[in-house]
Every structure is written in C-alpha cells, then in structure tokens.
Amino acid sequence: MASKIYQVLMPFLGSKSKLLDSISPYFRGNVLLDLFMGSGAVSLRGKVMGMKIIGGDVARRSKIFGIAVIANNNVRISEEDVASLFVPLENNGFIQKNFVPEIFLPETAKVLDNGFARAKQYESPKREQLEYLLSKFILSGRQFGGFQVGKKDNEMVMQGRIVELIESVSSEARAEKIAASIQPEYKRLVAIKNKINRAIFNNGEEHEIYQTDCFDLLDKLRKENRKIDTVYMDSPYRGSQIYSSHYKILDQILEQKLNVEIDDTAFNKNNALENFDRLFEKASFIENFVVSMGYNPNSDSGIKGEELLGVLQRYKPNARLITLKHQWAIANIAKSGRQENNCEYILVTD
Ligand SMILES: C[S@@+](CC[C@H](N)C(=O)[O-])C[C@H]1O[C@@H](n2cnc3c(N)ncnc32)[C@H](O)[C@@H]1O
Predict the structure, then answer these.
(1) What confidence tens digit (pLDDT) does each residue in 141-189 have?
(2) Distance CA 247, CA 245 (A)
C-alpha cells in the first residue's frame, strides 16, 4: 500500500518523494516538524511511520495539501463531490478572464472557475480536498507543475488541429500529456480523486498544519514550549528557482487575485547562510535535526555541504554530513552547469 499512497503528491519542484528512503531513517521520536512542506511528501512519510506531524510552509498550495491529506484522517472525496463541481454556480470567471488561451483551454477554464467556486461552499477539510483535487488537476501534465509552455498547444487544439499537434511533438511523453489534456475533465478528476482517497488514513495522531513563515513558526512553537522530536528542513536552494515565480499562476488561482505576495526568498538569496544561522538558532530547542540541501559544483550559487555543516555545528556540535546519490532535473537549478554533477546532501544530528 505504501508506494501507491505517494501518487497523491503533486509534481513538485524539489520534491523529496524519491529520497524518502534515504531521509526518513534519521527521523527520531514521535513528533516531526516539517518546516518547508512543499508537496508534503516528507510529512506524508512521517505520517506513514506513525508520527505526529506539524507541517508548515508560507504558501497556501502546501497548506491545502496538509489539511486535505495530512491532518485529515477519514474524509474522502466521493464521485458525487466531483460531480458537484460541475453544477453551474455563478462565479467571477477569474481563470477564463486571465489565463485563456495562454494556460488553459476555454472549456477547462470554465470547469475550473465553477469548480473552485463550488469547493468554497464546502466545510474544511472537504473544501481543501476539492481545492487540492483541482490544483493537482492543473499541475498534472506540466513539468514540475510549471506554466512555461502551453499557449501554442492550446491554440492548435482550439483550431481543431489536435492530430497535427500530437504528430508534431518529438517526445512520446509529451504527446501522451497532450492527448490526456483533451480528455473530459470529469474523467480526469475522478482518476485524481482516487489517488487522493488512497492516501487518507488515520495513524492515531492529531496533526497540525500552518501557512506560516519558518522563523515565525519556530518562535511560536518554542514560546508554547512544545515537544518536537525531529525538525526536517528543506528550504529552497540558494540560486535556484523562486517557488512563488514557478507556481505563480497556481497561487493566483488559489488566492483568486493577480497580485499574490509570498515572502519565500530568504534562502534563495546571497545572504542565505545568515538566514540559515538564524533558522538553526531558532530551532536549537529541538534535539534532532535533518537538513536537506542540493549542490551543483559547476555553479557558484549553491551552498557546499561543509559550509552549511559549519553553520549548523555552531548549535549542534555533533552534526554530520551525508551525501546522497541524486540528480536534480535541470529545471530546479537556474544557470546551473552539467546536471550529472549535481548532488543532494543531508545534515543530521543523531
Ligand atoms: C524545497 S521545497 C520543499 C520540498 C518538500 N520537502 C517536498 O518534498 O516536496 C521548499 C518549500 O519552502 C517554502 N518556503 C520558502 N520560503 C519559506 C519560508 N521562509 N518559510 C516557510 N516556507 C518557505 C516554499 O514555498 C517551498 O514549498
């Protein structure tokens, strides 16, 4: 059952879904704080391991996953729930107005506008589940959920040139994605809801999800004298893509406005090491740390393992560095050099 559970995850930039077996053996105790949840892959692994999860991220896209799947122990999406998204409801037409044909076909945009308006009528966690269902629908088929391509494809589909479009693309995978994108929305949503439902289970713990900046969340938990056994930190990498740029359109749709501000660049910028120092200091009340980072020796923008280890050892003298075998996909590293030299490492304190 375990591996099917992870099909619930979104295609997510920097997801640790493929590294869970290397990272999770370092989790100690019963309470896991996942400070940068992203797709929620690591929180989900912690939940599978029977831990209590406290998950945080500045972005709403992560919070809805946390409420829909991590904190939710028993509510599932029914076929009637999916059908209800199609029952016409007056709405603001936000997606139709702003993202056709650049991102969506007109019919898909109409379904999404109606669906998001319908989802808002439900109580939590069904509301977040339906928002997550629609978000996963939007991201599936896009490389790491990115929105860089689409307009030309959409225009050809709108002109009825589907066969010509599919024949014109060189990669089989891309042709399949285009073919999938013209399947009826209902059918695709039902397939996604089945993946979500498979990941709903109760591990006997109550979980907590916060849409909060990592520094503020640590302050809050320390002030409340909370017991946390392991903190997992997987911030954006210095010099890599900014999450709120990559997911801008999804974030705009979730907030239903064009100017969404997410303060998520503290670890992307040149002064990232100073922010790590502040982060480690604030988290030092927690005994066990697991910190993820990636590094590309051909690029001068990243942070070397030894360098980050030096900062962590100011607070956790027993910290050590473990290099994992993993290659990022090119999209995750702006201005990077050759991909085959990329490596992923973790710092652990046990
Ligand atoms: C590398 S991703 C995490 C990936 C995640 N571990 C996974 O497996 O999917 C980094 C995440 O940090 C979030 N983030 C960036 N700055 C943050 C901050 N100051 N506080 C909390 N979250 C932040 C981003 O929104 C993004 O979701």
Answers:
(1) 676 666 666 778 888 888 888 888 888 887 887 788 788 777 889 999 9
(2) 6
CA–centroid distance, residue 242 to ligand 1 (Å) = 10
CA–centroid distance, 160 to ligand 1, in Å, is 40
- DSSP per residue, 65-87: HIIIIIS-SS----HHHHHHTTS
- Ligand 1 lined by 251 (C-beta under 6 Å): no
Pocket test for ligand 1, best of 36, 219, 255, 263 (most atoms within 8 A of CB): 36
Please name each of the domains of the chain with its CATH number.
2-73+203-348 (3.40.50.150), 79-198 (no CATH)
- Residue with the smallest CA separation from ligand 1 atom 5 is 38
